[in-house]
Design a protein that fits this description.
The chain is an alpha/beta fold. 52% of the residues lie in helices and 9% in strands. Strands 7-6-5-8-9-10 form a 6-stranded parallel beta sheet, with helices on both faces. A 4-stranded parallel beta sheet has the order 1-2-3-4, sandwiched between helices. The longest helix is centred in the first third of the chain and has 18 residues.
Length: 412
């Protein structure tokens, strides 16, 4: 169970799927957004994307509020209950275990385990290096962490059976020698005689990317190589700004990573783990609010990626990462994650046991689904729309009208 919110959750699920299939399992993949009632998964994903893009301070307030509460609000819980029937049907009667790479899916699975409606183990693979309380769902059998730092955070939040299993990435993310590095630079049209900083901003291309790119270029420590994901408008802006090496979605990230000398990121997700596997030192810079900043802090604590908090430190730190002792230490620490012998696949296969699913309760009635969706729209309007209104000086009193339009547009 993953979710197409950005690319990190799906990327982790891709890697786990490949390893599980290599171990002899048949794997079914499902997008949690598609299991939510009344097509609300896509609406929520779109709102999240929009919030990160136009009002990141609003997202920070929401992230902090849910971090303090430690649990979904009543409307979100109602929405999750509406997904239970679809979740059980997706799992089917022959499955031996369920693995979640998304906190919302974990919340639903945990509830099903606690109620006895799901009779097979449910595990959460923590894709982030920092653990938001919503990742920890009562009822989940095991939480799999890439490193002791997120494992300790999960345990402090009351997670059951936390295991340090190391990360999992695609098989092609491996180290390469100088001939492979030169060949990779030729493939992407990159210079052989310059230090290259690969600047990434997730599949959505969010955050102050233009500012970061300009500061890296002005630092003279490295030439920026920019990946904008699916944000074509950002790519066009960067080209207009005069940057020479600008990419949108890159299908061969292992090759591009081999061509570069350092990775600069702002969210701390799967791309950082892929860089570690490639032997690329990583820096966090101008991080997006919420999970971007908490991931940066956790990676820094683990000694895996330094968090550059001030532009004045950029030249010194990038130079040290490219050709100094800091880069050597971080390369060694990153590669060590993959040499411990631990694997999340081992933990999953150990938990997977033949067990028929228990008898299922009837699915929520259609009117209740509509009610849950309507309540959610009102909550989204107040919980997400309010920060947007505050940020842009809009009239919060109009938020109820927005909720009404959502209900009509999606026939809730």
């Amino acid at each position: 169970m993953s979710a197409s919110v950005g690319a990190g959750h799906d990327g982790a699920a891709d890697a786990l799927t490949a390893r599980l299939e290599a171990a002899g399992f048949l794997v079914d993949r499902h997008d949690f957004l598609d299991l939510l009632p009344a097509r609300l998964g896509r609406i929520l994903s779109g709102m999240y994307h929009r919030l990160l893009t136009v009002a990141p301070s609003g997202y920070q307030r929401i992230y902090a509020a849910t971090e303090r509460s430690g649990s979904p609000g009543p409307a979100v819980r109602a929405l999750f209950r509406g997904a239970e029937g679809r979740m059980l049907r997706a799992i089917g009667s022959q499955s031996q275990a369920v693995v979640s790479t998304y906190p919302g899916a974990s919340q639903v699975l945990g509830g099903l385990r606690r109620s006895g409606r799901l009779g097979i183990p449910a595990l959460t693979y923590l894709t982030d290096f920092s653990v938001h309380p919503l990742w920890v769902a009562p009822g989940i059998d095991a939480h799999l962490a890439a490193h002791p730092v997120p494992a300790a955070q999960a345990a402090a939040l009351g997670a059951a059976r936390v295991l340090v299993t190391g990360p999992v990435t695609g098989d092609r993310f491996t180290t390469a020698g100088e001939p492979e590095r030169r060949s990779a630079r030729d493939e992407f049209g990159l210079p052989h005689d310059a230090a290259l900083a690969l600047l990434v901003a997730g599949s959505w291309g969010v955050g102050p990317v233009r500012e970061s790119a300009a500061e890296i270029r002005d630092s003279a420590a490295a030439e920026p190589v920019l990946v904008c994901g699916r944000n074509t408008a950002l790519a066009e802006q960067l080209r207009a700004d005069g940057f020479r090496y600008v990419h949108e979605w890159v299908s061969d990230m292992p090759l591009l990573m081999r061509a570069c000398d350092v990775l600069v990121q702002n969210a701390g997700g799967l791309t950082s783990l892929e860089a570690f596997a490639t032997g690329l030192p990583v820096a966090s810079y101008r991080c997006i609010p919420g999970h971007g900043q908490t991931n940066a802090a956790a990676l820094d604590e683990a000694g895996l990626a330094i968090w550059i908090r001030e532009p004045q430190a950029l030249t010194r730190v990038l130079s040290d990462l490219v050709k100094g002792s800091l880069g050597e230490r971080q390369r060694a620490a990153g590669l060590a994650l993959f040499s411990s012998g631990a694997s999340p696949v081992t933990a999953i296969t150990a938990a997977a046991v033949p067990h028929p699913a228990p008898a299922r309760k009837p699915q929520l009635s259609h009117p209740r689904l509509r009610l849950a969706a309507a309540v959610l729209c009102a909550t989204v309007s107040l919980g997400i729309g309010a920060p947007l209104a505050h940020a842009y000086g809009a009239d919060p009193g109009r938020l109820s009208t927005a909720a009404h339009h959502l209900i009509e547009r999606y026939e809730l």
